[in-house]
Specification:
This protein is mainly α. It contains 9 helices and no strands. It starts with a helix and ends with a helix.
């Protein structure tokens, strides 16, 4: 796979997935299409998130996909489908994020069943949502540590900005998940406004971070090193 295309595909899928979550969180959209179509929008977005996250995991565990120059970024390279790199914070961020997206798949799939009881919503929607949000928080923390730690201040560094946007998005997703717990007595969420706003703003943060992956890639690619010119045979004989 060409490194530049892998990065572009990852960023593009994250942007689409985030856009689905943003759209699904807009009350006017939900009112216009109905609850089921709105739930489908979230589920489709979660599939895009998972696809992007898996590509990012491949990128994190394949050095040839990131350490490239202007020439090599267009050269197809073999991709490592699995490596165990527990000491690499970038890899830890990618693998925990991928796990979190799988729980979001389960959560958004469970939300498709509109007539579920409160107990079923708790088990099949709320619980995986909270677990997925926890994985996203862990992933974002690893990402921040990978770009310098929580005390570093590097606003001119796009990887630093992306890591913090994702962390803020993860905090908002967790707030949304906690506020979305359905109370057994009333059948209502703890705070529907916080649940919706957390998803909307969190998805906007993820989308902005994904969009910044394009310029971040261009900045990270090294200038191509020119190949040495072949020596003249006449000079060699002299």
């Amino acid at each position: 796979m060409r490194p530049v295309r892998l990065n572009a595909a990852t960023a593009g899928l994250f942007v689409v997935g985030s856009s689905c979550f943003v759209l699904g969180s807009v009350p006017a959209y939900s009112d216009a299409v109905g609850g089921l179509a709105d739930a489908v929008t979230y589920f489709v977005g979660s599939i895009f998130f998972t696809s992007a996250s898996y590509l990012q995991l491949l990128q994190a565990q394949t050095p040839a996909m990131t350490d490239v120059d202007e020439s090599r970024q267009h050269t197809p390279e073999p991709v490592t489908t699995w490596r165990w790199l527990p000491e690499d914070r970038g890899w830890l961020a990618a693998v925990t994020q991928f796990a979190g997206t799988l729980y979001f798949n389960a959560s958004t799939l469970g939300a498709l069943f509109q007539n579920a009881s409160v107990h079923e919503q708790d088990r099949h929607v709320w619980r995986p949502d909270v677990v997925g949000s926890t994985f996203f928080l862990a992933s974002s923390a690893f990402a921040v540590l990978a770009v310098g730690g929580f005390r570093a201040w590097r606003p001119r560094s796009l990887p630093w900005v992306i890591a913090w946007l994702n962390l803020i998005g993860s905090v908002l997703f967790m707030a949304s998940a906690l506020a979305g717990f359905v109370l057994p007595g009333s059948g209502d969420a703890i705070n529907e406004r916080v649940a919706v706003a957390g998803t909307l703003l969190g998805a906007l943060c993820f989308g902005a971070g994904a969009a910044l992956m394009f310029p971040a890639w261009r900045r990270a690619v090294r200038p191509a090193v020119p190949l040495p010119e072949p020596r003249d045979r006449n000079q060699e004989s002299e």
